[in-house]
Amino acid sequence: MRLDRSWIERNIPHHGRMCLLDEVIEWNAQHIRCRSGTHRLRNNPLRSHGRLGSACGIEYAAQAMAVHGALVGGALAHGGTGGRAVSPDGTATDTRPQAGFLASLRNVRLHVPRLDDIAGDLICDARLVAGDLSSALYEFAVAAESQPLLSGRATVVFDAKKNRAGVSRGEM
Q: 100: domain range?
């Protein structure tokens, strides 16, 4: 089931121009594929000196990971048993994903120097390799049509203070 930009903005911390994804094309418990055309916008917030360097594609992939966390966060919260934060029809359940922070990047390969001159839409794929309540490891790739643009692995760490005994920062 496809999910649009308004759904994405309601379910990740990125809003307005900083929400880089236009659509979730497909997803399941292990994988997500998103589409974006925002790399062509002159007012893209990641542009510098009129250009959008290919390393900015990491933020596109990170937002795809955040969307994946919003969609399947319940699976981690329920011990990996397949519970979902969002039902297949896109409606929210009572499980909310935790805030995540990009902690590590490995094996990043940039295949092009910049993204703003790519004519086609960006397709962002992220595959969950491993994860639990404290962190998740993803493999990611960003491509346009059949052209690979960048790829790598990312570790996302969830709010450690919130994980301790299930209390939030304000309760410590």
A: 3-171
